[in-house]
Amino acid sequence: MKNEAQKSKSLWYHAWESLVSDKMAVTCLIIVLAYFLLAILSSLGLVASDYAKEIGPSYAPPSSEYLFGLDIFGRSVLAKTIKGTEVAMSVGLVTGIISMIIGVFLGAVAGYFGGKIDEVIVWFYTTFNSIPYIMLLVAITFILGKGILAVYLALGLTSWVGLCRLIRGEFIRHKDREYVQAAAAIGGGDFRKIFKHILPNVLHIVIINFSLQFQVAIKSEVILSYLGLGVQGRPSWGTMINDAKLELARGNWWQLAAATAAMMVVVLAFNILGDALRDALDPKLKGK
Amino acid sequence: MNIYSYIIRRLLYVIPVLLGVCLIIFILFNVLSPDPTLIMLGKHASKTQMMELRAELKLDRPWFIQYIDIVRSTFTFDFGRSWSTKQEISEMIKNGAIPSLTVTLPAFLVSFVLSISISLFVSFYRGKIIDRSIVFVCVALMSISSLAYILYGQMFFAFQLGWFEISGYESGFPDFIPYVLLPILIWVVLSVGPDVRFYRTIILDEVYQDYVRTARAKGLAESTIMFKHVLKNAMVSIITYVVIRIPFLILGSLLIESFFSIPGLGGIILNAINSSDFPVLKAMTVLSALAYIIFSVITDVLYTIVDPRVRLK
Fold first, then answer.
1. Which of B143, B148, B293 sits opposite A271 (nearest CB)?
2. Hey, is the C-beta of B107 within 8 angstroms of any chain A C-beta?
3. From the centroid of its chain, how far is CA B170?
């Protein structure tokens, strides 16, 4: 039993220990969780459900009554910002999952099997990577039409190459190691070796990449909204910043400020968390 | 395998990648995209109108021929005419490249020198409070939307303070300068964050190597170690990082160009997106992919020449 307990103090346990001892990382984790909570509450209609209601004069500046000011239609900027977390967090999450699935699958298959399969996959991602990401985004949104589904798919389908490369490299390094040979010796098939044996050993890369991908997706949503290819008919930080370009010249800075600040806090938290995760999970960095 | 056969093999690999790029463009724009005649003629177009337009745009030809057309345009640079402005696309690109470069090239050089200097400085004080605060500032800078920089920059520095032109452009050498200053400044601020973080990581990777310890043990000054040993070795990764970004300079910056009304390639792309101008989008995709492929070959070759540790398989 004691032996069991000691074995469970694995890389993950140490990583968790070093993560929670880092005050900055814990703060960031709490911020991220708070944003998720806000997004869930807002999607259930428990907060900011009145974002579309006119509650005061057009462009009322921030005051004690209207905390973040009002927009052109007299809607609360605060409520819109909260509603925007829904879009931002879901874009980050869905995009991250899509790119994770594609990147891990193709990278694992290429690295593990090698040979012709590897050549084809490497050719595919080299080709794909040669096309500027903004062009792919545009083409995909043309095909799917505008809306949040197109945003998910466009960002997810264009962001897997980096992870795929890393995973392929790790699988090449791992596939001939003793533990994999041992797994083969007791009759483990390819599928089992890939997912049950090698994947857990490279999972830290997936996690680090996911946290970085998350914030890139949040930032990209804003750009897509500016290009007119983003979310339609509901508030997002992207559409808020896009609206602001006409308001700013009239001195109405609060909508831009609210959306920028809301975005900055969560992106910053993800950035710092990503770095902390890398420090905690990457064995190569131990002792530096 | 010697270096020459490696270079030749690397050059030959360009062909399948280029054909692949054309295939992806073909699938995205010619096969999967909604019928462009519908977009151009509106919902109430008659069947004959649509057929005529399809013939005019050469969309009625077999798919194989359409694919070959894309491949051919990669080599001849003949991309046909824009659907919306009816101009020759190669002409549009030629005219747009210079204004784009007047912004991106100086911006690129300034941010390169600045980022390298800052990252050398912070690596010198690695782990100390000054290093950590600068890295934190970099991450914070990266966390702000690029649109916010452009909007606030234009509003504050150009509109309120009147230090720079709000937007516009004039061609000709000294005339364009007032118009590109603020765009350059914004570009530099946008790229300093990620660049410093990247260069710092590269430099710190070297700082912990054995040869640095040896240099220190033999009593060399820290500044000599930094410049003569560390920077020299870090240069390999720095060069690859820099060279691969050159194609994106030609492409220009979509957002900055559109906000400052600079008539560059970014603006051309933006107009093409707004008017569903497929030939322009295809041409820009082909060209930038081509530039990217060429520069990645250059990077790979440079890498193997500069760094003998890179084993040629």
1. B143
2. no
3. 23
Q: What was the ipTM of the complex prediction?
A: 0.81
**8 A C-beta contact, residue B285 and residue A134:** no
Contact (Cβ atoms closer than 8 angstroms) between residue B238 and residue B202: yes
Neighbours of A4 (CB within 10 A): 7
Domain ranges of chain A: 2-286
Averaged pLDDT, B297-310: 76
Candidates 1.10.357.140, 1.10.3720.10, 3.40.50.300, 3.30.1330.60; CATH matching B93-276? 1.10.3720.10
Task: Tell me which chain B residue has its CA closest to the CA of residue A122.
Answer: B17
For residue A257, give both structure tokens: 């400020």
Model confidence over A232-258: pLDDT tens digits?
A: 778 888 888 888 777 777 777 788 888
Verify whether the Cβ–Cβ distance B33 to A139 is below 8 Å.
yes
Burial of residue A5 (CB within 10 Å: 0-12, 13-18, 19+) is exposed
In chain B, which residues fall in CATH 1.10.3720.10?
93-276
The answer for B42, left when phi > 0, alpha when psi is -120 to 50, beta otherwise, is: left
The residue type found at A227 is L
* pLDDT for A36 beyond 80: yes
pTM of structure: 0.83
Widest CA span in chain A: 74
A78-A82-A87 Cα angle (round to 5): 140
Q: Above 70 in pLDDT, residue B54?
A: yes
Please list every residue in chain B whose beta carbon sits closer than 8 Å to the beta carbon of residue A245: 147, 151, 259
Mean pLDDT of chain A: 82
CATH 2.30.42.10 fits A2-286, yes or no: no
